[in-house]
Amino acid sequence: MTIDSTMSNNRIISYQASRSVQFSQSNAPIDLRMAAWALLTDFENWPAWMPGVDKASLLDSGEPGRGSLIQLNCGRTTVDWLIDYWSPLNRIDFIVNDHGRRKAYSYNISSAQGNSRLDLTLDAEFELRSYQRLIAALFSWVDRRKTDRILDRLQQDLLSMSI
Q: What pLDDT score does 141 carry?
């Protein structure tokens, strides 16, 4: 596990967290990148690995891609995630406006060692507004924990594919 955290201008909190999923050749899914991409782009199943999400729906008709909108129901609130970057099997980025607090997430997928290792990286940025800057340490801790839990659950799902 790798985590890198920075804060600039006391307004933006940035994280980079990553997980490696290691398989022996005998239990590796056919294509690790395809398996990871399938998890990331199966929006209706996001609640299985995204903490606090009760339901996720692709709002656009047709195939998802850059500009598509995913709506997340989190308890009594609804948050829209816009796909900002779409590179199948490699990277997907989202821009989120969470009740006036802007967030960005970038999931990067790479594989190595003859398809027996997958590296999944999540870059996240969270903008702090006015009063939020006064409690930046709390927001930083909460956002970091959420980022870690997302990657932990994705890692578990990928490992369970080999069983």
A: 81
Number of structural domains, the chain? Answer: 1
In angstroms, what CA-CA distances link 158 with 25, 32, 52, 110, 147? 15, 8, 20, 14, 17
pTM (whole model) above 0.85: no
Candidates 155, 150, 140; CA nearest to 5 is: 140
User: Amino acid identity, residue 144?
Assistant: R
Contact between 49 and 150 under an 8 Å Cβ cutoff? The reply is yes
- Token output for 126: 């969270």
pLDDT tens digits for range 12-33: 767 667 677 766 555 555 577 8
- d(CA 160, CA 56) in angstroms, rounded, equals 22
| 109-130: average pLDDT | 78
Question: In whole angstroms, how far apart are CA 154 and each of 49, 68, 149?
Answer: 6, 22, 9
How many Cα atoms occupy the beta-carbon half-sphere of 115 within 13 Å?
13
> What range defines the domain where residue 82 resides?
2-160
- Return the CATH number at 28: 3.30.530.20
Q: Which residues contact 58 (CB under 8 A, 6 or more apart)?
A: 43, 44, 64, 68, 69, 70
